[in-house]
Amino acid sequence: QPFEYVVDPKIDGVAVSLRYEDGRLTLGATRGDGTTGDDITANLRTLRSVPLALHGAGWPRILEVRGEVYMNIHTSAYPNGELRGQLSTTARTQLAFEVWLDGAQQVPPISTMARGVGKFWLSASVDTLWWDIYADGLSSTITGVHLHRGAVGASGDVLLDLSASVQQNGWIRGSSTSVSSALIAALLSGQVYVNIHTANNPNGEIRGQVWRLLREGFVASFDGQQQVPPVTTLARGTGIVSIDRTGSSLHYEFVLNGVVPQAVHFHKGKRGENGDVLFDLSSSFSAVAMAGATASGYWTAEDMPAFDAVTAELFFRDSVYVNVHSALYPNGECRGQVTRQYAPMGISTADNGSQQPVQLSPNPVETTMWIRAESAEGSLLAWRVFTLRGETVLEGTAEYSAGGYMVDVSSLPSGVYLLQMTFSSSNRRALPFVKQ
Fold this sequence. Notes:
Layout: E1 14-21, E2 24-30, H1 41-44, E3 62-73, E4 83-86, E5 94-102, E6 115-123, E7 129-136, E8 142-149, E9 158-161, E10 171-176, H2 181-188, E11 192-198, E12 206-211, E13 215-222, E14 236-244, E15 249-257, E16 263-268, E17 277-280, E18 285-288, E19 292-300, H3 309-316, E20 320-325, E21 334-338, E22 347-348, E23 358-361, E24 368-373, E25 380-387, E26 392-396, E27 400-401, E28 404-408, E29 415-423, E30 428-435
Protein backbone atom coordinates (compact mmCIF):
# COMPACT_ATOMS: atom_id res chain seq x y z
CA GLN A 1 0.00 0.00 0.00
CA PRO A 2 1.32 3.53 -0.76
CA PHE A 3 2.08 5.70 2.25
CA GLU A 4 1.82 9.46 2.69
CA TYR A 5 4.20 11.24 5.04
CA VAL A 6 3.88 14.56 6.81
CA VAL A 7 7.26 15.99 7.90
CA ASP A 8 7.44 18.77 10.46
CA PRO A 9 10.86 20.32 11.30
CA LYS A 10 11.53 20.19 15.04
CA ILE A 11 14.15 21.89 17.21
CA ASP A 12 15.89 19.35 19.42
CA GLY A 13 15.94 21.00 22.83
CA VAL A 14 14.24 20.66 26.19
CA ALA A 15 10.49 20.10 25.76
CA VAL A 16 8.70 22.89 27.63
CA SER A 17 5.02 23.58 28.28
CA LEU A 18 3.82 27.13 29.01
CA ARG A 19 0.50 27.59 30.80
CA TYR A 20 -1.35 30.90 30.51
CA GLU A 21 -4.35 31.72 32.68
CA ASP A 22 -6.39 34.81 31.80
CA GLY A 23 -3.56 35.84 29.50
CA ARG A 24 -0.82 35.64 32.17
CA LEU A 25 2.05 33.15 32.29
CA THR A 26 1.47 31.07 35.43
CA LEU A 27 3.60 27.97 34.86
CA GLY A 28 6.48 26.74 32.72
CA ALA A 29 7.39 23.07 33.06
CA THR A 30 9.52 20.43 31.37
CA ARG A 31 8.13 17.15 30.10
CA GLY A 32 10.13 15.22 32.70
CA ASP A 33 9.35 11.51 32.64
CA GLY A 34 6.12 12.06 30.73
CA THR A 35 4.06 12.21 33.89
CA THR A 36 5.92 14.57 36.21
CA GLY A 37 8.06 17.47 35.01
CA ASP A 38 10.14 20.22 36.62
CA ASP A 39 8.81 23.69 37.38
CA ILE A 40 11.21 26.08 35.57
CA THR A 41 8.89 29.10 35.47
CA ALA A 42 11.52 31.43 36.99
CA ASN A 43 14.08 30.40 34.36
CA LEU A 44 11.67 30.80 31.43
CA ARG A 45 10.72 34.29 32.58
CA THR A 46 14.27 35.39 31.70
CA LEU A 47 13.74 34.57 27.98
CA ARG A 48 12.66 37.58 25.93
CA SER A 49 10.90 35.30 23.44
CA VAL A 50 8.57 34.00 26.18
CA PRO A 51 5.83 36.62 26.77
CA LEU A 52 4.79 37.12 30.38
CA ALA A 53 1.38 38.25 29.12
CA LEU A 54 -0.50 37.47 25.89
CA HIS A 55 -1.14 40.32 23.47
CA GLY A 56 -4.41 41.08 21.76
CA ALA A 57 -7.73 39.52 22.74
CA GLY A 58 -9.86 36.47 22.15
CA TRP A 59 -7.54 33.85 23.61
CA PRO A 60 -9.07 31.18 25.87
CA ARG A 61 -9.02 31.57 29.65
CA ILE A 62 -6.53 28.69 29.93
CA LEU A 63 -4.00 28.22 27.12
CA GLU A 64 -1.09 25.78 27.00
CA VAL A 65 1.75 26.22 24.50
CA ARG A 66 4.53 23.71 23.91
CA GLY A 67 7.97 24.15 22.40
CA GLU A 68 11.69 23.41 22.72
CA VAL A 69 14.42 25.41 24.49
CA TYR A 70 18.18 25.43 23.83
CA MET A 71 21.04 27.94 23.94
CA ASN A 72 22.82 29.17 20.80
CA ILE A 73 25.81 31.56 20.73
CA HIS A 74 26.12 33.49 17.44
CA THR A 75 29.33 35.11 16.18
CA SER A 76 30.23 37.22 13.16
CA ALA A 77 32.04 34.24 11.63
CA TYR A 78 29.07 31.92 12.24
CA PRO A 79 25.92 34.08 12.23
CA ASN A 80 23.68 31.01 12.55
CA GLY A 81 25.53 29.91 15.67
CA GLU A 82 29.07 28.84 16.57
CA LEU A 83 28.37 27.19 19.93
CA ARG A 84 25.19 25.45 21.03
CA GLY A 85 24.21 23.76 24.25
CA GLN A 86 21.23 21.61 25.10
CA LEU A 87 19.52 22.76 28.26
CA SER A 88 18.88 20.11 30.87
CA THR A 89 16.96 20.47 34.08
CA THR A 90 18.22 19.46 37.47
CA ALA A 91 16.06 16.79 39.02
CA ARG A 92 13.90 17.88 41.92
CA THR A 93 15.84 15.46 44.07
CA GLN A 94 19.00 17.60 43.75
CA LEU A 95 20.02 20.98 45.14
CA ALA A 96 21.92 23.18 42.68
CA PHE A 97 24.66 25.70 43.50
CA GLU A 98 26.69 28.15 41.41
CA VAL A 99 30.10 29.80 41.65
CA TRP A 100 31.92 32.64 39.88
CA LEU A 101 35.70 32.86 40.42
CA ASP A 102 38.25 35.65 40.00
CA GLY A 103 41.33 37.05 41.70
CA ALA A 104 39.48 39.90 43.41
CA GLN A 105 37.79 37.43 45.78
CA GLN A 106 41.11 36.12 47.09
CA VAL A 107 42.22 37.20 50.57
CA PRO A 108 44.22 39.32 49.93
CA PRO A 109 43.10 40.03 46.30
CA ILE A 110 45.23 38.74 43.41
CA SER A 111 45.81 40.65 40.16
CA THR A 112 45.06 38.14 37.40
CA MET A 113 43.14 37.95 34.14
CA ALA A 114 41.86 34.47 35.07
CA ARG A 115 38.16 33.83 35.51
CA GLY A 116 36.06 30.79 36.32
CA VAL A 117 32.47 29.62 36.52
CA GLY A 118 30.93 26.43 37.85
CA LYS A 119 27.96 24.45 39.10
CA PHE A 120 27.51 22.00 41.98
CA TRP A 121 24.71 19.51 42.62
CA LEU A 122 23.94 17.84 45.96
CA SER A 123 21.79 14.70 45.98
CA ALA A 124 18.58 14.60 48.01
CA SER A 125 20.15 11.90 50.15
CA VAL A 126 22.97 14.44 50.81
CA ASP A 127 25.61 11.78 50.27
CA THR A 128 26.84 12.70 46.76
CA LEU A 129 28.18 15.97 45.38
CA TRP A 130 28.82 16.59 41.67
CA TRP A 131 30.72 19.57 40.21
CA ASP A 132 31.45 21.06 36.82
CA ILE A 133 33.89 24.03 36.84
CA TYR A 134 35.67 25.82 34.01
CA ALA A 135 38.66 28.15 34.53
CA ASP A 136 40.31 30.27 31.83
CA GLY A 137 43.32 32.59 31.67
CA LEU A 138 45.26 31.10 34.59
CA SER A 139 48.86 32.28 34.79
CA SER A 140 50.28 28.77 35.24
CA THR A 141 49.45 25.11 35.82
CA ILE A 142 46.76 24.19 38.35
CA THR A 143 48.36 22.64 41.43
CA GLY A 144 45.23 22.15 43.52
CA VAL A 145 41.49 22.82 43.77
CA HIS A 146 39.63 22.77 47.09
CA LEU A 147 36.33 23.55 48.73
CA HIS A 148 37.05 25.67 51.81
CA ARG A 149 34.90 26.68 54.74
CA GLY A 150 34.55 30.46 54.95
CA ALA A 151 32.36 33.48 54.29
CA VAL A 152 33.11 36.15 51.69
CA GLY A 153 36.37 37.87 52.64
CA ALA A 154 37.40 35.19 55.13
CA SER A 155 39.76 32.21 54.82
CA GLY A 156 39.08 28.77 56.23
CA ASP A 157 40.05 25.11 56.33
CA VAL A 158 39.66 22.64 53.45
CA LEU A 159 36.37 20.70 53.43
CA LEU A 160 36.86 18.72 50.20
CA ASP A 161 39.79 18.23 47.81
CA LEU A 162 38.76 18.46 44.13
CA SER A 163 42.31 18.30 42.73
CA ALA A 164 41.99 14.78 41.32
CA SER A 165 39.16 15.95 39.03
CA VAL A 166 41.28 18.54 37.16
CA GLN A 167 41.11 17.79 33.42
CA GLN A 168 42.68 19.33 30.35
CA ASN A 169 41.64 22.66 28.80
CA GLY A 170 40.55 24.23 32.08
CA TRP A 171 37.80 21.80 33.08
CA ILE A 172 37.38 20.49 36.63
CA ARG A 173 34.69 17.80 36.63
CA GLY A 174 33.91 15.07 39.10
CA SER A 175 31.87 13.78 42.02
CA SER A 176 32.38 12.60 45.56
CA THR A 177 30.49 10.46 48.04
CA SER A 178 32.70 11.72 50.89
CA VAL A 179 30.30 14.51 51.79
CA SER A 180 30.68 15.43 55.44
CA SER A 181 27.95 16.97 57.58
CA ALA A 182 30.20 20.02 58.00
CA LEU A 183 30.35 20.49 54.21
CA ILE A 184 26.58 20.12 53.85
CA ALA A 185 25.88 22.67 56.57
CA ALA A 186 28.39 25.12 55.11
CA LEU A 187 27.01 24.74 51.57
CA LEU A 188 23.44 25.40 52.66
CA SER A 189 24.46 28.52 54.59
CA GLY A 190 26.69 30.03 51.86
CA GLN A 191 29.87 29.42 53.87
CA VAL A 192 31.85 27.54 51.20
CA TYR A 193 34.26 28.89 48.59
CA VAL A 194 36.27 27.30 45.77
CA ASN A 195 40.00 28.05 45.64
CA ILE A 196 42.08 27.22 42.55
CA HIS A 197 45.82 27.13 43.28
CA THR A 198 48.48 27.51 40.58
CA ALA A 199 52.26 27.24 40.39
CA ASN A 200 52.59 31.04 40.29
CA ASN A 201 50.02 31.55 43.06
CA PRO A 202 50.33 28.60 45.46
CA ASN A 203 47.92 30.15 47.97
CA GLY A 204 45.27 30.53 45.29
CA GLU A 205 44.92 32.47 42.02
CA ILE A 206 41.13 32.65 41.70
CA ARG A 207 38.42 32.09 44.25
CA GLY A 208 34.63 32.12 44.28
CA GLN A 209 31.86 31.84 46.84
CA VAL A 210 29.43 28.95 46.27
CA TRP A 211 25.83 30.14 46.38
CA ARG A 212 22.65 28.10 46.34
CA LEU A 213 20.34 30.97 45.46
CA LEU A 214 20.33 32.51 42.00
CA ARG A 215 18.73 35.93 41.67
CA GLU A 216 16.30 37.48 39.17
CA GLY A 217 17.08 41.01 37.99
CA PHE A 218 14.80 44.03 37.42
CA VAL A 219 15.32 47.68 36.48
CA ALA A 220 13.50 50.95 37.11
CA SER A 221 13.74 54.38 35.49
CA PHE A 222 12.11 57.37 37.23
CA ASP A 223 10.43 60.52 35.91
CA GLY A 224 7.37 62.65 36.55
CA GLN A 225 5.47 61.46 33.48
CA GLN A 226 4.85 58.06 35.09
CA GLN A 227 2.91 59.68 37.93
CA VAL A 228 -0.89 59.37 37.79
CA PRO A 229 -1.68 62.11 36.90
CA PRO A 230 1.68 63.16 35.32
CA VAL A 231 3.90 65.71 37.08
CA THR A 232 6.14 68.29 35.39
CA THR A 233 9.55 68.00 37.02
CA LEU A 234 13.24 67.69 36.18
CA ALA A 235 13.60 64.92 38.78
CA ARG A 236 14.98 61.70 37.34
CA GLY A 237 16.34 58.43 38.67
CA THR A 238 17.42 54.92 37.90
CA GLY A 239 17.82 51.71 39.85
CA ILE A 240 18.15 47.95 39.98
CA VAL A 241 16.27 45.30 41.96
CA SER A 242 17.08 41.60 42.41
CA ILE A 243 15.09 38.78 44.01
CA ASP A 244 16.39 35.39 45.08
CA ARG A 245 14.80 32.32 43.52
CA THR A 246 13.00 31.31 46.74
CA GLY A 247 11.19 34.64 46.83
CA SER A 248 12.40 35.42 50.36
CA SER A 249 14.86 38.29 49.81
CA LEU A 250 14.91 41.44 47.66
CA HIS A 251 17.89 43.76 47.16
CA TYR A 252 17.59 47.27 45.71
CA GLU A 253 19.85 50.15 44.69
CA PHE A 254 18.48 53.50 43.48
CA VAL A 255 19.97 56.85 42.45
CA LEU A 256 17.82 60.00 42.27
CA ASN A 257 18.73 63.41 40.88
CA GLY A 258 16.91 66.74 41.01
CA VAL A 259 14.74 65.82 43.99
CA VAL A 260 15.09 65.65 47.78
CA PRO A 261 12.81 62.78 48.82
CA GLN A 262 10.62 63.10 51.88
CA ALA A 263 9.41 59.50 51.56
CA VAL A 264 9.93 56.62 49.10
CA HIS A 265 7.83 53.45 48.85
CA PHE A 266 7.29 50.29 46.84
CA HIS A 267 3.65 50.39 45.68
CA LYS A 268 1.43 47.71 44.20
CA GLY A 269 0.27 48.70 40.73
CA LYS A 270 0.89 48.39 37.03
CA ARG A 271 2.04 51.25 34.82
CA GLY A 272 -0.70 53.89 34.76
CA GLU A 273 -2.31 52.66 37.98
CA ASN A 274 -2.07 53.87 41.58
CA GLY A 275 -1.92 51.31 44.36
CA ASP A 276 -1.29 50.62 48.03
CA VAL A 277 2.11 50.88 49.72
CA LEU A 278 3.94 47.56 49.93
CA PHE A 279 7.14 48.60 51.73
CA ASP A 280 8.69 51.83 53.05
CA LEU A 281 12.15 52.54 51.57
CA SER A 282 12.55 56.01 53.11
CA SER A 283 15.06 55.14 55.82
CA SER A 284 17.54 53.68 53.32
CA PHE A 285 17.86 56.91 51.29
CA SER A 286 20.71 59.31 51.97
CA ALA A 287 21.10 62.77 50.43
CA VAL A 288 23.92 63.56 48.00
CA ALA A 289 25.07 66.75 46.31
CA MET A 290 22.99 68.64 43.73
CA ALA A 291 19.58 67.77 45.18
CA GLY A 292 19.75 64.03 44.83
CA ALA A 293 19.73 60.87 46.91
CA THR A 294 20.87 57.26 46.81
CA ALA A 295 19.58 54.11 48.46
CA SER A 296 20.79 50.57 48.94
CA GLY A 297 19.14 47.93 51.06
CA TYR A 298 17.23 44.69 51.48
CA TRP A 299 13.62 43.67 51.99
CA THR A 300 13.59 40.24 53.61
CA ALA A 301 11.31 37.71 55.26
CA GLU A 302 12.30 39.17 58.65
CA ASP A 303 10.96 42.65 57.83
CA MET A 304 7.49 43.97 58.62
CA PRO A 305 5.73 43.46 56.33
CA ALA A 306 7.68 40.36 55.32
CA PHE A 307 8.91 39.83 51.78
CA ASP A 308 7.56 36.50 50.52
CA ALA A 309 6.83 34.52 47.36
CA VAL A 310 3.43 36.22 46.92
CA THR A 311 5.06 39.65 46.90
CA ALA A 312 7.81 38.39 44.58
CA GLU A 313 5.15 37.34 42.07
CA LEU A 314 3.96 40.96 41.86
CA PHE A 315 7.43 41.96 40.62
CA PHE A 316 7.38 39.17 38.01
CA ARG A 317 4.03 40.51 36.79
CA ASP A 318 5.41 44.07 36.41
CA SER A 319 2.94 45.10 39.13
CA VAL A 320 5.22 47.12 41.43
CA TYR A 321 6.39 50.73 41.15
CA VAL A 322 8.55 53.02 43.29
CA ASN A 323 7.06 56.39 44.25
CA VAL A 324 9.26 59.30 45.37
CA HIS A 325 7.43 61.89 47.49
CA SER A 326 8.81 65.40 48.00
CA ALA A 327 7.81 68.52 49.91
CA LEU A 328 6.64 70.12 46.65
CA TYR A 329 4.75 67.02 45.49
CA PRO A 330 3.60 65.11 48.60
CA ASN A 331 1.66 62.60 46.47
CA GLY A 332 4.76 61.81 44.43
CA GLU A 333 7.18 63.83 42.28
CA CYS A 334 8.75 61.03 40.25
CA ARG A 335 7.90 57.38 39.84
CA GLY A 336 9.51 54.31 38.30
CA GLN A 337 7.92 51.03 37.25
CA VAL A 338 9.99 48.01 38.29
CA THR A 339 10.20 45.75 35.27
CA ARG A 340 12.17 42.88 33.79
CA GLN A 341 12.06 44.51 30.35
CA TYR A 342 15.39 46.34 29.93
CA ALA A 343 15.24 49.88 28.60
CA PRO A 344 18.03 52.47 28.46
CA MET A 345 18.02 54.26 31.79
CA GLY A 346 19.01 57.89 31.96
CA ILE A 347 19.03 60.86 34.29
CA SER A 348 18.71 64.40 33.03
CA THR A 349 19.05 67.50 35.19
CA ALA A 350 19.14 70.03 32.37
CA ASP A 351 18.54 73.51 33.74
CA ASN A 352 16.48 74.54 30.71
CA GLY A 353 14.55 71.29 30.25
CA SER A 354 16.32 70.49 26.99
CA GLN A 355 16.20 66.80 26.01
CA GLN A 356 18.88 66.62 23.29
CA PRO A 357 20.32 63.08 23.06
CA VAL A 358 23.73 62.13 24.39
CA GLN A 359 25.17 58.74 23.48
CA LEU A 360 27.84 56.53 25.07
CA SER A 361 29.66 53.91 23.02
CA PRO A 362 30.62 51.19 23.34
CA ASN A 363 28.35 50.22 26.19
CA PRO A 364 29.24 47.81 27.82
CA VAL A 365 32.85 49.04 27.74
CA GLU A 366 36.18 47.42 28.59
CA THR A 367 38.68 50.31 28.44
CA THR A 368 37.75 53.44 26.46
CA MET A 369 34.31 54.98 25.97
CA TRP A 370 33.22 57.80 23.64
CA ILE A 371 30.73 60.55 24.46
CA ARG A 372 28.85 61.89 21.44
CA ALA A 373 26.30 64.67 21.80
CA GLU A 374 24.24 66.79 19.43
CA SER A 375 25.52 70.30 18.76
CA ALA A 376 22.83 71.90 20.93
CA GLU A 377 24.61 70.52 24.00
CA GLY A 378 27.71 72.58 23.29
CA SER A 379 31.16 71.41 24.35
CA LEU A 380 31.83 68.99 27.19
CA LEU A 381 33.29 70.88 30.16
CA ALA A 382 33.75 68.04 32.64
CA TRP A 383 32.68 64.49 33.42
CA ARG A 384 32.34 62.44 36.59
CA VAL A 385 31.68 58.72 37.22
CA PHE A 386 29.49 57.67 40.16
CA THR A 387 28.73 54.26 41.61
CA LEU A 388 25.06 53.42 42.15
CA ARG A 389 25.66 54.38 45.78
CA GLY A 390 26.49 57.94 44.68
CA GLU A 391 30.26 57.69 45.32
CA THR A 392 32.58 59.51 42.89
CA VAL A 393 35.19 57.10 41.51
CA LEU A 394 36.53 59.01 38.46
CA GLU A 395 36.38 62.56 37.13
CA GLY A 396 38.11 64.69 34.56
CA THR A 397 37.89 66.70 31.34
CA ALA A 398 38.10 65.59 27.72
CA GLU A 399 39.23 67.15 24.44
CA TYR A 400 36.97 66.95 21.39
CA SER A 401 38.42 64.53 18.83
CA ALA A 402 37.11 62.34 15.99
CA GLY A 403 33.52 63.45 16.52
CA GLY A 404 33.37 62.93 20.28
CA TYR A 405 35.05 62.90 23.67
CA MET A 406 37.13 59.96 24.87
CA VAL A 407 36.89 58.76 28.49
CA ASP A 408 39.27 56.11 29.88
CA VAL A 409 37.47 53.84 32.37
CA SER A 410 39.97 50.97 32.30
CA SER A 411 40.83 51.44 35.99
CA LEU A 412 37.26 50.75 37.14
CA PRO A 413 36.23 47.34 38.49
CA SER A 414 33.47 45.53 36.61
CA GLY A 415 30.00 46.85 37.43
CA VAL A 416 27.26 49.38 36.65
CA TYR A 417 28.08 53.11 36.89
CA LEU A 418 26.61 56.52 36.10
CA LEU A 419 28.54 58.99 33.93
CA GLN A 420 27.60 62.60 34.66
CA MET A 421 28.47 65.16 31.96
CA THR A 422 28.44 68.97 32.20
CA PHE A 423 28.12 70.86 28.89
CA SER A 424 28.73 74.49 27.94
CA SER A 425 24.99 74.84 27.24
CA SER A 426 24.51 74.61 31.05
CA ASN A 427 22.97 71.17 30.59
CA ARG A 428 24.04 68.40 32.93
CA ARG A 429 23.39 64.83 31.79
CA ALA A 430 23.90 61.44 33.43
CA LEU A 431 23.73 58.07 31.69
CA PRO A 432 24.40 54.54 32.96
CA PHE A 433 27.09 52.29 31.53
CA VAL A 434 28.40 48.80 32.20
CA LYS A 435 32.13 48.27 32.79
CA GLN A 436 33.17 44.76 31.78
